[in-house]
Amino acid sequence: MAYIPRIIETGIREDLSKKMVFVSGPGQAGKTTLARRLLTQTGSDIDTAYFNRDSARDRERILRLLSVAGKPPYFKTE
After folding, report:
1. Which of 21, 23, 43, 78 is 20 to 30 A off residue 62, Cα-Cα?
2. Rounded to whole angstroms, how far apart are CA atoms 58 and 49?
3. Is 36 helix (H, G, I), strand (E, B) or coil?
4. What confidence category does residue 2 fall into, taking pLDDT thresholds of 50, 70 and 90?
5. Are the CB atoms for 47 and 41 separated by under 8 Å?
6. Is the Cβ–Cβ distance between 46 and 34 less than 8 Å?
7. d(C-alpha 13, C-alpha 38), whole Å
């Protein structure tokens, strides 16, 4: 299947150059495809730069990173 460009790509790409970006939206909207495409284009390692909040493994990774940074977690993990 061919990639469908998203209107928000340019804005996200610009924001990624200076800060962390969270992408949220309804299921099957292309969030993961967009994130992985942008990470690949920037030469980022998807395994270390991409987190899925629905993944128990990734939630644990996020909590570990926050604890190392001395930041309290402010999200639910249900």
Report:
1. 43
2. 11
3. helix
4. confident
5. no
6. no
7. 7
pLDDT at 24: 82
**Predicted structure pTM score:** 0.63
Contact 66, 72 (CB under 8 A): yes
- 23-46 burial code (b ≥16 CB/10 A, e <16): eeeeeeeebeebbeebbeeeeeee
- Cα–Cα distances (Å) from 58 to 4, 7, 35, 40, 51, in that order, read 26, 27, 15, 19, 6
